[in-house]
Design goal:
Elements lengths: L9 E5 L8 H4 L8 H14 L4 E6 L29 E4 L10 H7 L4 E7 L1 H15 L2 E10 L3 E2 L5 E2 L1 H12 L5 E3 L1 H7 L1
Parallel strand pairs: 1-2, 1-4, 2-3, 4-5, 5-8
Antiparallel strand pairs: 6-7
């Protein structure tokens, strides 16, 4: 058994919602199609160890968005459905800390270590991890429990989802968070 579980790390599941299964809507060519399954396995481990879990969901203000509350995509993915008593925090911007009581809930529970997973690597996962690092939390982002989509650059060039994903993780690692894969995380738990 590793030493991370002694720190009572909170698992922060960011936007693991059905709307992200629609590749074409988000730019196509999503990398890491197994992200939800890996998030689900990590959630099972957290529950077994009785560690804190926070489910974050995005509620878009755009009625046409796959993440608008009127759309089926607003729902959590089947692999990570919250259990009764597990906090569900709804946001409508990229960071799980803005416009929510996430920080207050973490502080009340004296949580100082966060493990962040979810979708997308370069948007809500990255923004949440950056703020967590700036707030002083010991922050981990799990590379194979996140995913990204192709992006179009400022000059119309197309960036492959895997490159977007890896670049976002590289920007976080060592500055705002420590990036591990799920195997390393489970070893350290």
């Amino acid at each position: 058994m590793g030493i991370l579980s002694d720190k009572k790390p909170a698992l922060i599941l960011v936007d693991v919602q059905k709307g992200f299964l629609d590749d074409d809507y988000w730019g196509g060519n999503r990398n890491n199609k197994d992200a939800e399954k890996i998030c689900g396995r990590l959630l099972e481990s957290w529950r077994e160890l009785k560690l804190p879990v926070f489910h974050i969901r995005h509620s878009s203000t755009n009625k046409d968005s796959r993440l608008h509350e009127s759309h089926h995509g607003f729902q959590f993915s089947d692999e990570v459905l919250p259990l009764p008593g597990e906090p569900v925090i709804t946001k409508n911007v990229n960071s799980a800390f803005i416009g929510t009581d996430l920080k207050e809930q973490l502080d009340v529970q004296d949580i100082h270590t966060l493990v962040i997973v979810g979708i997308t690597t370069n948007h809500c996962v990255s923004t949440t991890a950056r703020m967590a690092g700036n707030f002083g939390y010991e922050t981990y982002v799990i590379s194979d429990a996140t995913a990204a989509f192709d992006r179009i650059g400022i000059n119309g060039e197309k960036y492959d989802a895997e490159l977007v994903h890896l670049t976002a993780l590289a920007n976080l690692n060592g500055e705002f968070a420590t990036v591990w894969d799920s195997g390393k995380l489970l070893l350290e738990l």
